[in-house]
Amino acid sequence: MVPDLGNKYLKMWLWIVISLETITKVHGYSNGRFPESCDSMSPVHTNRNGISYEPQSTDPPFEITYDPAPHGQPITVYLKSKQSNKFTGFMLEARKMEDVVGPAVGKFIVLDSRETRLLSCHSSPDNAVSQKLSSEKRLLAVNWTSPQEENLDYTFRATFLQNVETFWEAVDLDVKARNVTKLQEPGTVLMIADSVLVAVKTELPLLITLLINGPRLHHLNKVKILSCVLCAAVEIPALVLFSFADPINVLFIALVCVAIAFNFMELFIVCLRIEPSHELKEISELIIKACSVIHCIFTTAIIFLGVLEFDNCGKEREDSWPVKVMMAYTVWTLLFVIWVYVSSIHRKTILGGSKIGSSKNRKERKKKKLSAAGVIVIAVQVIFGVGNLCFAFAVSFGIFWC
What we know:
- The protein has helices at 2-30, 181-212, 217-245, 250-271, 281-310, 321-345, 347-350, 359-367, 372-401, and strands spanning 62-67, 75-81, 89-96, 107-110, 116-121, 124-131, 139-145, 154-161, 167-175.
- By secondary structure, the protein is of the alpha+beta class.
- The N and C termini lie far apart (89 Å).
- Pfam families: Reeler.
């Protein structure tokens, strides 16, 4: 009787120990914390005899996909089921393609904190991610950012677990880095040249009117048309370069398209050749000015984004001199826009309160010298023109030199 009782207690304690061991293993598996697996990415699961389970040798029913993103922006990585299978656990890392057995690189960003948690492998924070709970999943997404100082090819490597005994490891997805700088840099420089042309075509009509004392209308129109054509000749190649360099980065392409649209809108109105005596003349002039100003703003935005994209002149962005120059250039452009607005409002005063195109007023202006207001306007126009050229040269030098 006593031996039977002892055997019962012994079996009971054995079952308790086995149960505790199983609970510990399941718990360690469910919360996703297994730093000892940073290199191998294999779960440490053993059976009752202490023998580790082996990974499946069949084709995994799960896969890794991703949404491409512009250079320097987070990539969205998806872990998903190919069929009806579901996974309860996973571990995901990114490694350099040239050193796939090396340490994890980059940083992950959790999109669903209820299902995923970040891990730190080899003292690098957030360079791996795993499940937080052992709930069944068919699709899961995380964001990943590459090391900013590098533009290399990467391999996403994942381990998928269906349960404690069944798992697949070394499920890889290669992501090749897009070489975007070779074509985007000249595209940005072309837009810098375009910004100078936009400023010139905005200043030139008033400047010519003051210097020549009221040129004939068709001569002034020819100057405007030539300026618009030159802008288009610069913008269209820039659009082609941006499209081929990084077709996924639609921001550059969209901004250039808007700039081209306003340039052609201005060209269309100029080609209408509205006579000075026509009641729509003043409205058309205001529309042309507005198109030029909007054109200038979008061009400056493209250049600013280009400088931020290719800036390598400082460890920190606030230490980079091209960024500082570009900020000053943006302020300069804002002052230029204000000047265009003020000069448009006081155009009649600057030109002596007369309308362009009247033969009588033209003869009168020929006899008059430039007024003080006219001299000031010419001086300001020259200052803005020289300033635009200096900033354009400095920003272009910063893009290619850094």
